[in-house]
Each structure stands twice: as structure tokens, then as C-alpha cells.
């Protein structure tokens, strides 16, 4: 691979390259971080924290490439995306293996991560109809008005560790197909699979400078947020960093959007289909070891549904904790030893604060992978809203259960939570579902769907504390995010000699 310099000698590890102006560049930095397999602690490679000069060079390359890229016919841009989707599809299984090794999720979930990103690339192929302007003929005598939807210039994307395929693919394909150039800053924890996708994008025909990649942490991100040539920043990650990015970029005159942390609830009504609902709860709470921004972290059992808790616990006990590449694994490791320590601390806090522990994942042992960052599925009930396990995003396989008497209590509880990413309702009653979707103040609602991540023709519409900025990260909304509208009012005189008279008013006649 070009994006990753393979180890030459024994004892060396592969190093990840920067992509600047179409060249794969070995960073000159002296700050590197190991990329670690969370199931084994094996070092898979190392990633540079790019120098200021390197970040500036990437942005300058993108700035220079913009002049010709924006003039490239829209069909030519779409055709590159058509090729890219073909290449990703062909390589999906290879990318999934690397993704599982560096991120920990199961192989089938890694394939899902790539598939959801691939769907955004497919959608990018229809930008011709998404980037159309409007035209009104005859707004005054001989005068027409129309809009053109133009790219912004250099845009940047900053991505988190939990979806190293899907989230980069939310960003650069749509930005680039709209005529922008791009600087991507992948997660430093698992950049290998992202770089495989970037390599395919170059193979698909994205010209030099149109897509650039820099690696690093806060310093690199801050440079992107403050550089004069960057016009828009799309961020996905934690609430603390997303808020910082949104504010810093805004202070420097950039358009910004931040998709951030969450605490997603599911409401289970007593009239729900029990088996379907419990299966959905288990999958959404513990899949990807709970490391999804749309993971289910709180189940609210309404009325008699409280009697289903034991069965939920029994179903959860059947989940297999193991390395993601092992067959039949349900729960892989969490991303790092630090993440594991945080999840363990939160489980400890739940016990200390008096929640009832039904299933304890703290002692899980995985034969053959004793060093892995494993946490088993953990279930608490009797959870109060003042407990840390309710208030904080755990980002681990931990489900908190709260029992209430009515749907209205459930709605009020959820609406009082500061986050607004996703919510689910399980019921067989259409009127209940309608009331819920109308009253719930959460941006993405699933009715008998546990993880309602919208498909790419819509957009990701998290709300309140889970999002800053009006527009979502893909779909129609992101075309608005990555473009600006220019309105043109034109008059063509039919008669060369019709000079009209001087008009000192503001009206068009
Ligand atoms: P993170 O905020 O730690 O990192 C995200 C990005 O920000 C990375 O590229 C990282 O290098 C960079 N970064 C880290 N610290 C920084 C700092 N101090 N200043 C500037 N940049 C910094 O997030 P993560 O741990 O990689 O991802 C998990 C989080 O992402 C969870 O909170 C999850 O809910 C959230 N997430 C949200 C969505 C969504 O769509 N709402 C999707 C996926 C993940």
C-alpha cells in the first residue's frame, strides 16, 4: 500500500503516510503514536502527528487545486464517485479485516461500517440533481432571477475512532463531488482502514490536491479550525472536542458542524412484541461493545414491560465476548486500555450509587486474548437520573434500565436529558407511536427500530446536546453545508436602443 509504509526490518512497525498534493509523504515529525490492536495489544503501525509545515502544505495544496477542480464538469466529478463505490465494494472484505484489527468490532459489523459509508458514496453519484439551482423567468420586464449552487473552497473533516470507514465517507465524497477540495484528519487511534479508503479514492481518479490527509491530535485540529483558507469544518466525535471545534472554527469565520456525544433511550411499551423488542434492545445496547453514538444506553420499561427484565438479562447472557475476527463474536474489545478503565469506573460508580446490577461485565476473561480490552455486557436497573451511569455517555456495553408507569413519564424523562441523538419506541399501537414521534424532542426516532441512523438520501439529524450547527453531515443537508448560493438577477434588452430612463428607486420595472 502507498498510504502505509510497510515495516522494512524486524522490530520496525509500519508507518502511516500523509497525503499532500497527491503524494504519499512520510512525516518529518518526531511525535508518533502506536496503532494498537485492542484485542491483543499488538502494535499494528504508527501514526504521525503532522508538523505545522505539513498541515499548511496540505491546506495550500487544497487551495491551489480548488481553482481547477471547481471548473471540472459535474459529470466528471460524479464519475469518480461511481468508480470509487465500485472499488470500495470490491475491497470491502480486505478493509473490514484491517478495521476489525485496529478498532476491535466484529468482522460483520466492520463490513456494515463500510457498507453504510459506501451508501453515501453512491448518493454522491447523484449530485447533479442535488446541486441544482432555481430559475424564475420574468421577475420584471426582461429580467430573470436564478441561483447557482457553488462550492465553498477548502473544507476539512475531523473523524472519531468508532466508525473509521463510515464517517470519513460521510465527509470527503460529498464535499469533493460538490466541487470543494478537502483536508481529512482521521482518528489517530485507528487510521489504517481510513487510509485504505483514501487510497481507493486516489485510484478512482481524484486529482492531486483535491483530497489531502493529515494526522494528529489537538494541534492539527486547531490549525484546521483557524487557517484562513479553510471555509468549512465537519466534525464527528465527543461533545467536549466538538464544542471546542465548533466555537474555534466559528470565531475564525468558518462554517462548522459538530456531531457529538449521546445518551440514547428506548421506550418499551407493554403492548410491544416482546421477543422482537428484547432482541432489538440487546443488539443495540451491546453491539460494537456499545461504542456507537447511536448505541442504546437507557431502556425505559413502561408499565408491565418491567416484567421483561429477567428475560432481557437471559438473552444478553448468550452474547459471546471475543476478538472481533473470531467467528460468532458478538462483543469485541473497547478501543483502548484507557477506554476500558473509564467504562469500569462508571460501572463501579453505578454500584456505589445504588443501582441494581443484574449482569456484571467487569470480570470477563477471554481465553487466548488475556491482554484484550474486554468488558462484558452489563445491565443495571433501578437507575436514577442523578447517577453517573445515567448522566454520562459510557461508550461501552452497559445498559441502564428505568421503569415508569406511563408513556408521558418516559417522554418527559427523555426530553429532560440534554442529549438528542437517537431514540427508539417499541409498540404495536399506531396512536402511541404517533404521539411519541410528535412529542419527543430527539432528532432521530426509531419506531420498532433500535438504531435509526438515516440512509444517505436523508441526513443524520441528531439534535440538542448531540449536535452543533444546523445542517447534517450527509444527504441533501450536507450539499447545503458544502455549498453557497449565488443569486443572479439579469436583464437582457431586446431592443439595443431601449436605454430606459434613469431610475433612482430600488424597484425593478
Ligand atoms: P474524540 O472527540 O476524542 O476525537 C474525535 C476527533 O477529535 C479525533 O480525530 C481526535 O484526534 C480529535 N481530538 C481529540 N482530542 C482533541 C482536542 N482536545 N482538540 C481537538 N481535537 C481533538 O472522539 P472519539 O473518542 O474518537 O469518538 C467517540 C465520540 O464520538 C463519542 O462521544 C461518540 O458519541 C461520538 N460520535 C458521535 C457521532 C454522531 O454522529 N453524533 C458519531 C460517532 C461518534
Structure explained in plain terms:
By secondary structure, this protein is of the alpha/beta class. A 7-stranded mixed beta sheet has the order 16-17-18-15-14-20-21, with helices on both faces. It has a 6-stranded mixed beta sheet with strand order 11-10-9-12-13-23, with helices on both faces. Strands 7-8-24 form a 3-stranded antiparallel beta sheet. It has helices spanning 52-69, 74-103, 107-124, 127-130, 166-177, 192-203, 218-226, 239-251, 274-286, 309-317, 337-352, 388-391, 407-416, 430-439, 475-481; strands spanning 4-5, 15-16, 18-20, 23-25, 32-36, 43-48, 135-140, 143-151, 154-158, 181-185, 211-213, 230-236, 255-259, 264-268, 296-302, 356-359, 378-381, 398-404, 419-420, 423-426, 445-447, 463-464, 467-468, 483-491. It folds into 2 domains: 16-29 and 44-261, Aldehyde Dehydrogenase, Chain A, domain 1; 265-447, Aldehyde Dehydrogenase, Chain A, domain 2, CATH 3.40.309. The mean pLDDT is 96. Bound molecules: nicotinamide-adenine-dinucleotide (NAD). Residues 158-163, 185, 187-188, 217-218, 221, 236-238, 241, 244, 259-262, 293, 393, 395, 421, 460, 462, 466 line the site of nicotinamide-adenine-dinucleotide (NAD). GO terms for molecular function: methylmalonate-semialdehyde dehydrogenase (acylating, NAD) activity. InterPro entries: Ald_DH/histidinol_DH (IPR016161), Ald_DH_C (IPR016163), Ald_DH_CS_CYS (IPR016160), Ald_DH_N (IPR016162), Aldehyde_DH_dom (IPR015590), MeMal-semiAld_DH (IPR010061). Pfam families: Aldedh.
Amino acid at each position: 500500500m502507498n498510504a502505509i509504509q510497510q515495516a522494512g526490518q524486524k522490530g520496525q512497525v509500519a508507518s502511516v503516510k500523509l497525503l499532500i498534493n497527491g503524494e504519499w509523504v512520510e512525516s518529518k515529525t518526531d511525535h508518533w503514536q502506536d496503532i494498537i490492536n485492542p484485542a491483543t495489544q499488538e502494535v499494528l503501525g504508527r501514526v504521525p502527528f503532522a508538523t505545522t509545515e505539513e498541515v499548511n502544505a496540505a491546506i495550500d495544496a487544497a487551495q491551489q487545486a480548488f481553482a481547477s477542480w471547481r471548473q471540472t464538469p459535474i459529470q466528471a466529478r460524479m464519475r469518480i464517485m461511481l468508480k470509487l463505490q465500485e472499488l470500495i465494494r470490491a475491497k470491502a472484505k480486505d478493509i473490514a479485516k484491517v478495521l476489525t484489527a485496529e478498532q476491535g468490532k466484529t468482522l460483520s459489523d466492520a463490513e456494515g461500517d463500510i457498507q453504510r459509508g459506501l451508501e453515501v458514496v453512491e448518493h454522491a453519484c447523484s449530485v447533479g440533481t442535488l446541486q441544482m439551482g432555481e430559475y424564475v423567468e420574468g421577475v420584471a420586464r426582461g429580467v430573470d432571477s436564478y441561483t447557482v449552487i457553488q462550492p465553498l473552497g477548502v473544507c476539512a473533516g475531523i473523524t472519531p475512532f468508532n466508525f473509521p470507514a463510515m464517517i470519513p465517507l460521510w465527509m470527503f465524497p460529498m464535499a469533493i463531488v460538490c466541487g470543494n477540495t478537502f483536508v481529512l484528519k482521521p482518528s489517530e487511534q485507528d487510521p489504517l482502514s481510513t487510509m485504505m479508503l483514501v487510497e481507493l479514492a486516489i485510484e478512482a481518479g481524484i486529482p492531486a490536491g483535491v483530497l489531502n490527509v493529515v494526522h494528529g491530535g489537538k494541534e492539527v485540529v486547531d490549525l484546521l479550525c483557524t487557517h484562513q483558507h479553510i471555509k468549512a469544518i465537519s466534525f464527528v466525535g465527543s461533545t467536549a472536542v466538538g464544542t471546542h471545534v465548533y466555537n474555534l472554527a466559528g470565531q475564525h469565520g468558518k462554517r462548522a458542524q459538530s456531531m457529538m456525544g449521546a445518551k440514547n433511550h428506548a421506550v418499551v411499551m407493554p403492548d410491544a412484541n416482546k421477543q422482537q423488542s428484547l432482541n432489538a434492545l440487546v443488539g443495540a445496547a451491546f453491539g460494537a461493545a456499545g461504542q456507537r453514538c447511536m448505541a442504546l444506553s437507557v431502556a425505559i420499561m413502561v408499565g408491565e414491560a418491567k416484567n421483561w427484565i429477567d428475560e432481557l438479562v437471559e438473552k444478553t447472557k448468550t452474547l459471546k465476548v471475543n476478538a472481533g475476527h473470531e467467528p460468532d463474536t458478538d462483543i469485541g474489545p473497547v478501543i483502548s486500555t484507557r477506554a476500558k478503565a473509564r467504562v469500569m469506573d462508571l460501572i463501579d460508580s453505578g454500584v456505589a450509587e445504588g443501582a441494581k446490577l443484574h449482569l456484571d461485565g467487569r470480570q470477563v476473561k477471554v481465553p487466548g486474548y488475556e491482554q484484550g480490552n474486554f468488558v462484558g455486557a452489563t445491565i443495571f436497573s433501578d437507575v436514577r437520573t442523578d447517577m453517573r451511569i445515567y448522566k454520562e455517555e459510557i461508550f461501552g456495553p452497559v445498559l441502564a434500565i428505568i421503569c415508569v408507569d406511563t408513556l408521558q413519564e418516559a417522554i418527559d424523562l427523555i426530553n429532560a436529558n440534554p442529549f438528542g441523538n437517537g431514540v427508539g419506541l417499541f409498540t404495536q399501537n399506531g396512536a402511541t407511536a404517533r404521539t411519541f414521534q410528535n412529542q419527543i424532542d430527539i432528532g432521530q426516532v426509531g419506531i420498532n427500530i433500535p438504531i435509526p441512523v438515516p440512509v444517505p438520501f436523508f441526513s443524520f439529524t441528531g439534535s440538542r446536546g448531540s449536535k452543533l450547527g444546523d445542517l447534517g453531515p450527509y444527504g441533501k443537508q450536507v450539499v447545503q453545508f458544502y455549498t453557497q448560493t449565488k443569486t443572479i438577477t439579469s436583464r437582457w434588452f431586446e431592443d439595443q436602443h431601449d436605454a430606459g430612463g434613469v431610475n433612482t428607486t430600488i424597484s425593478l420595472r
